[in-house]
Every structure is written in structure tokens, then in C-alpha cells.
């Protein structure tokens, strides 16, 4: 009976943190949709259709970046500001905004609100969550501010003071929130493929937010400790003092960036439509950017439709993996894939346990990672099949679009604007599921695993089966 | 140090059963390649090129069924007999042939030969393996014989007595061994789309061998017990008396066939190039056949290239899953996928253990299943990327070809004959890895997990990480 109660508990309608989070996101999306439909939001002064407005607001709030209309040309200044607000709310997590308001108003934060924030950040403990949320908000504005200043070195000379500052702020927020919206034109950041400031500022912002806030705070604390501590310890020792989560995030992120860079550099080297025409410096910039961007950024400096199919497939794989947990990134997350690969490597080595950095990863975590990936594969393949029926596009274009939407990446091979209404609705749902699904599923699983008392349930005998 | 020894042990060169199995298959392939290169093997009486002969013999021995030349038109009677021998040797497992020779010669089977057979059948225990192997060989010839008699009802009227019997034997062996070679022409069994005898005989043979021998023997024993037992028990009780492995194989196989049937029936219903033009009876036949065939059969009664992209994708998924362990089927196997899905379902229900049919599935088995699938995904995606560079074909055509080769299915969207030499070599390697890789990897993992004494190794503390 206990088990039955648990099952209903997770789907209890009114008060679960997951439901409030979902409802909150829905509310923001709907308000933004109405605002974007108003004539004041478009350059032409005309009313925007419901589906296109819903698509844009969902894409912004879910920090995806797929667009059915050209952001620069279609939306008015008011419309652009609405989009920017959606991005900032979605990226920072609107729960942290709620908590910030609570904190700044000096109100004592309630346990329920703590739980909400815990869910928004996939944070493990309620202890110190308020301090954590404050740090997150401060850090976000600080990093976005630095990014905007760096970008303004390019945008102010190009667009004048006022417009230049606006552009800089827009792109800094868009990059840090992993939104991928841009005001450059119809092909993302392709015009800036060789621009060092744009490249490294945007990449820095993408990587920073893609790592997840807790990783930054953990790393910062260890570096501070190393400096202030009386006893001397080496960098390697310092690295080991990081939490296992932080160690894994750094390791996997660096491995993925290096693999992606080498892959794109070699495969695209002679492609005249992409790297082939560029200087060696620009080739390196572009390959690196293409490797970093699928960490759910949604920006690109190479024309994606011109990439070789191998590079497009590699981009799809990187987009599916996405960024790291507890940040603004989407995808099934680096650590999720990392945990599964580590389990496989341990099995190949004949180990009973999954061991990394002298720590055992609990089986419950591996089961959770497996569950997240299986759900993601089912969602991606299911929607992909529907789209192959409703849309008139090549298979790779649809695969790219679906994984991009689910991973809240926002890159496209160019079919977004010509989607059918059914296709648009499916992509809207995918963006929403991609942004909130993995978080809520992961949290729901964690809560259940924590609550269920297996000892109350009959312990069945083990029996082996053959696999492979 | 113990661990280090284990690691070297698995790759020890000369005497491991896995190595002998691989070497044996390689030898058969090379002998067949030489025979097929001879002028006597081709209709035209000309020498066949090394790569095409190697491709054909690998495809036959690995019971894949992909062909670079039309089997009916290109090969002479001698060549066809060589191919048929390759299929029978590859399908039955040449190890069981070796054991059969031993048994029939009345020699006492050595422990080493038992281990070899154990590997060939993924069998869990050495006890009774000789009896098991004998049963396998008898069963194979019995079922192939019945299949040939049924097929002759169609083929003798069509081709006369001698040729009709030859056709019946060829297709019965090809179907039961999951080889997918046919003598009908260039488009598999498409001309027989509405022929009841051909459809149900071939499907029966495919399903029978796809279930795996141990499942048949287990099921047969329980049915016999139910009949002969003094105490009466229901069919449900009888089902529960089956081993967990057998229960899972039956359940998953039936689920996959039903899902596939409903999917193809609905999605292709109005496709004029496939089901659209057929009568309702033929529609049902064709949808069912298309659902059964990806269990690594390699036959098709619908023109695969004309299927909708959604159906092609569904076929790819079914081909990747493949048949059940310890039979002639390929793919990552039904039980492998089943175990992972069950783990996810248990996790969603908040259970600590993976439970099905009142039995716990050991974590070691789940880890092994995960490892097999991850290796399969890496192999498929890696070779797919290479082929997108070397071949001039659509992405779906290449994806279909790669999964078909790896899963030893042998279906194609039509690009096999026009592969480049590099493409042919990659597909040859894929067929070989697909046939032997999963078996040897799974066995190697089982051996290692069995041997490693984790208690001798430092037990590291657990630490959780965030996933999803
Ligand atoms: K994005
Ligand atoms: K086959």
C-alpha cells in the first residue's frame, strides 16, 4: 500500500514543486505570447498570429532560440524587449527570481519556497539554498555585465552608442542564458566567424553557464581555500577536493570540447562552404565555436546547412548530450551520459561497481541516468516519426530540428520558418518538454527513490537473464 | 594486482574461447571467399573480384544477407551451394558443428570444447551442454525440413520438381538461419506479398530461430511437464514455471511484433507504393511480415525504399533491437533492451531494484546490457560518420545500411550494390563485428564479472552526482 501511495503522491495535482514550476513557466509563456501578438510588438505594426507568437515566447522562455520569424527584422523594439525578458526569466529560472524577491523583501523564506528553488537548481540539500540563490543571481548579472562590456567593443563601433549597448546586452544575456537569439540577421553569428572578441566572449558565456552554477561555486571555494589555507597543497590535490559532481562536469566538458574541435577541424577542413575558405586562425576559431555551441547555445558561426553530413550528425550527438546539470543548459546533460559511459567502462574492466576518481557512483544514480536517457530517446524518436509524416523535409533536417528543440539548443538546418502548423506545435511542445521535462523527471525520480522504503516491499529472489 | 591480471587475461592471445570462435569464423569466411572467386562459382564463368567475394561470404557466414551482386543471376549452382553451406555453418554456429562431429564420433567432449560451445550459445552452465548441442542440431534440421516441405507447395509448381526442391531447401535454411539470402530476384520476397504459405512459413522460421534455442527447449519442457504432471496447473502457472529469460523473450518478442504490425499497418495504409495498392488481407500479411522481418531476417515483401521515412525509421529501430540471445538472430537483442527499459520503469516507480515477474534482475546484468548497447551505438554512429564521407547516398539510406549490417539483418534501401570499395570493406567489418562482437563482448563481460573478486580491491566510498 505504501508503494501505491507513493505513485499517487508524485502526480498529486495541486502542490508539488514540479507542478508549480511547470505552471509558472506556462504562465510566463502565455503572458509573453499575448504581448507578442499585440501590434506594438511587430515592426510592421500588425497583429502576430497565435502560433508564431506562442512559438517565439516558448522558444525564449525555454531558452531554445529556434525562430519562425527573423528576430531582428520582424519584432519591434518592444517585441525584442519582451523576448529579452523571457530569456532572462527562463534562463535564470523564474523560481530564482521569486526567491530573489523574497530575499530582497527581507521576508523569511518558507520551506515550500526552498523546495521550489531546490527543484529549479537540481540542488541536493535545502541547507544554504537561499545563500546559493543569492549568489546565483549576483553571479548571473556580474558575468552578463562583463560579457556585455566585452561585446560592446565590437557592437558600439558598428552600431553607435545606444544601439551598440543594446546589442551588447541582448547578446550577452542571450549567450549566458544559452538562448541563442540574435539580432545579426538570418544566419546567426556567421558574419563574425573570425572575430576574436565575439568568438571568445560568446564561447566564454556559453561554457560558463553550461557548467552549472554549483560547479562554479564549488570551484571558486576550493581555489579560495587553496590560497588562504596555511598548509600547502598542489593543484592536483585541490582538484580532488572538489565534489565528484564538479570533477565530472569539468572532465566531461573538456573532453567533449576537445573531441568536437578535432572532429570539426579535420572533417570540415576542405569543405569550401565552411572551413575551406577560411584562414588557419579562422578555421581554429570556427571549429572551436562549432564544438562549444551544441552545449545548447544555439549560436553558430558556420552555415550549419553547409556542414558535411558527418559534422551534422556529430552536432546532433553533441546537442543531445547538451550541457551540465543545474545550469541554463539543456540536453540529457554531460554527467548523465558520463555516468552511463563510466558504468560501461567499469563493466568492461570486470568491476562490480562504477568507480571514478576514487568514488563509487551509487546504482540509484546510474538507474536515474538510464531512465532520463531512455525517456529522451523515446521522445525524440516519437516526435521525429510524427514530423516525417507532417513535414516535407529531409530526414537529417528533421532529426537536427527535433534534437535541437528537445535539447533547447535552437540551431537549425533552416526548416523552422517553413514548418507546418502541426510541426510548429510539436516543436513548441518539444521545447517545453526539453526545458522542464528532464529537470522535473530527474527531481521526481530523486524524490521517489529517496522516499520509497523498499524494505516494506516483498524482496524477490534474483534471477539472471542473457543479454547481448 | 589481481585486477591487472584480469585485464590481461581477457585479451590473452592464443587460447581464449572467444579467440577460437573468431578465428574459426574468419577461416570459414576466407575459404568461402576463395571458392567464390573461382570461375566455377559464377554464371558467367569469370573470376570474381576479391572484395565482392569477401563481401558475399562474410554476409553468408554472418547470416546477414546484404549482397553486392544478385544471388540468383550472378552465382552458378556451385556458387549458390557454397553460399548455402556458409549460411548453415554460420547460422547453426560452426562451434556446434564441431561439437556435433565430436559427439557423433563418440569421442568424449573435452572441457575446452564445452567452453567453446557455451560461448557459441551464450549458455550459462557447462552441465548438459552436449545434450543441449545435440538437441539444437536435431531441432535445426527438423524445423528446416518442415519449412522446406511447406515452401515446396509453392516452389515445386512454380519451378518444377528438382529446382523447386532446391529453392525450398535454400529458402528454408536462409530463413531459419536468419540469413535473408533469396533466389527470387532483385527485391527479396516482394512478388509473394500476398502468398499465405510463403508468408507464414518464412515468418514462422524467422520467429522460431529468433527466439533462441534455449527458449524453445525450456518452453517444450514446461509444456511436457504440464501434460505429464499428476497435479493440475493452469497455463498461467505453467508460464511462471518458465525461466525468467524465457518469459522475457516471449513477452518482448510479442510486444515488438504487435507494435510493429500496428505501426506499419496504420502508417503505410494509404501509401500507394506499399500497402495502398493491396487488398485488406494482403495489407495485414505485409504489415505483419514487415514487423517480423527486422528480427534480423533480411527478407521483405514490401519495397523498403518506398516505405515512408517514419516506417524506415521504425524498421531501423527494430533492426537495432534484433532478435533474442542464443539464437541465430543479430542486433543488440530483445532481452538487452528489455532489461534496460525495465530498469527505467522500476526507477520511475521509485523502486530500488529492477523487478519483473516476481524476480529481481541483478545489477550486473543491467550493467552488461548497458555496456552492450553503448558499444553498439558507438560502432553504429562511428561507421555511419565514415560512410557519410565515403559514400554518395542519402543519410537514411546509410543509417539503414549500417544498422542492417551491424544487426546482421541484410535489408537495404538499395545502395549495397553501388557502395565504394571503402564502403564495402566497412560493411564487411560491420557484419563481422555485428555477428561476433556482441556474443564475444557479452561473454567476455560475463567471464570477467564472474572472476573479479571486488573484495580484494579497495572499496571506495559512494558519492552522488546530479544527472538529467
Ligand atoms: K539555446
Ligand atoms: K539476416
UniProtKB/TrEMBL annotation, chains A, B:
Pfam name, any one: TrkH
Signal peptide: none
Matches recorded under InterPro entries: Cat_transpt, TrkH
UniProt-recorded name of the protein: Trk family potassium uptake protein
Domain of life: Bacteria
Primary site of residence: membrane
Organism ancestry: Bacteria, Bacillati, Bacillota, Clostridia, Lachnospirales
Subcellular location per the Swiss-Prot or TrEMBL entry: Cell membrane
Keyword line: Cell membrane, Ion transport, Membrane, Potassium, Potassium transport, Transmembrane, Transmembrane helix, Transport
PANTHER family tied to this protein: KTR SYSTEM POTASSIUM UPTAKE PROTEIN B (PTHR32024:SF1), TRK SYSTEM POTASSIUM UPTAKE PROTEIN TRKG-RELATED (PTHR32024)
GO MF entry, a single one: potassium:chloride symporter activity
